[in-house]
Design brief:
globular; alpha/beta
Length: about 230
């Protein structure tokens, strides 16, 4: 098994349990506006959010547009009158508090760090949300740096995003870099565009319907030990 010196980790869905953070933030927000939060609302929101994020990855919308639009569409579907922009801002503040790690995330980051190798986080998330989550997480001490698309000015899977990341890593050698993430369209496609090896973290056993081919595929973070 090939060994790597630099590990680029996606954040949400890879190291961080985004679904738990999202669920907690949504429940809190709907309680604040006196609306009963149900599994139906959760599923509608996730479907809308996923569709809009795909548009963002394709460059069809900006971060600010997608954030407001997702709640505007949700409120329309569930026949609720709320200010989507204000709701979204408060939701992001709640989401920033959700620092929950995926099983095995702490252990693998600790192992990589102890081996003298480098970890960087590459994420398309919102700056005001992601920055405090990265800084307040239990793995913050293992991370050399994190690159948030809103601050970079480009997004995964754009090659320009990765060129910026590489420019910030000392003595970078693409042959020694691997990107690990749960998204085929952002992380794995991004790795392909950047000319680096990739590892699809497929913890749910999803089918690869996008024609995007990773170098490796795993279903547990502990399997990354083979690359260290």
């Amino acid at each position: 098994m090939k060994k790597y010196e630099i590990f680029l980790f996606d954040a949400d869905g890879t190291l961080f349990d985004f679904y738990k953070a999202e669920e907690t933030a949504l429940k809190t927000m709907f309680e604040k506006v006196d609306i009963t939060y149900t599994s139906e609302i959760r599923e509608k929101y996730r479907a809308i959010n996923a569709e809009i994020w795909q548009d963002y990855e394709k460059g069809k919308s900006s971060q600010s547009e997608l954030q407001t639009l997702r709640f505007a569409k949700l409120f329309e579907e569930i026949n609720v009158i709320q200010n989507a922009e204000i709701f979204n801002l408060q939701y992001l503040a709640e989401l920033a508090k959700g620092v929950f790690l995926v099983d095995g995330a702490f252990e693998i980051c600790q192992q990589i760090f102890a081996s003298g190798k480098k970890i960087y986080i590459v994420t398309n998330g919102n700056l005001s949300t992601q920055k405090p989550r990265m800084e307040n997480s239990a793995i913050s001490g293992f991370i050399s740096n994190f690159f948030i698309s809103e601050a970079v000015g480009f997004r995964k899977p754009q090659a320009n995003y990765f060129e910026y990341v590489f420019s910030q890593i000392p003595q970078v050698d693409k042959n020694e870099i691997i990107i690990i993430g749960d998204s085929l369209t952002a992380d794995i496609a991004g790795g392909n565009n950047a000319g680096i090896d990739s590892c699809w973290y497929n913890s749910f056993g999803a089918e690869n319907d996008f024609g995007v081919l990773p170098t490796y595929e795993i279903d547990r973070l502990s399997q990354i030990s083979e690359f260290v």
